[in-house]
Each structure stands twice: as C-alpha cells, then as structure tokens.
Input
Amino acid sequence: MVSSRPETEWDETEAAWMVAAEAYRRQEICHLCGWPKAICQSRDAENGLTVPPPTRCHVTTAIKRAQEARQSGPSAKHDDALLWGAELKR
Output
C-alpha cells in the first residue's frame, strides 16, 4: 500500500439522520414505557389498556440468586466493584 486516506465514519446525511432520530426519541417517545407519548400520555388510553402477567428474566434471576448467596459468604466485601454476568450452561 502506497498511501491511505481514512473515510469519515458518518457523512452529513447519516449524521443528520442520527440527530433527527434522537430528536424524535426525545420528543415523541416516553422515557418510562417506550411507547409513543401520543398514546401513553393520552387520558383516553388509561382505561383502554390491559397489562398481561409479567414475564420473568431468567438471566436476572440467576444473577440475583448468585448475589444473595455471595452476601452471606466470607468474601462479601466491595460488592459494588463486582461485574456480574451470565452464561448459558453447556
């Protein structure tokens, strides 16, 4: 290779799309539920919604169980410094 010139990661069009997408999310999407504000903040929607039973996140359940088990052990210091994750069993 004689020479190279790095390409810009975002051109003006892509940057404008990202700015517009962020503005849309900020202005039109509820930060609590993720639904459009026109629906979730409408008084008419309050009695027109049903809430199905919750679905359990089994990854979070496994992590919480491991955290609880560790808290009762002798090495329970500095838990705020631990990075927890989960892996599928093989």
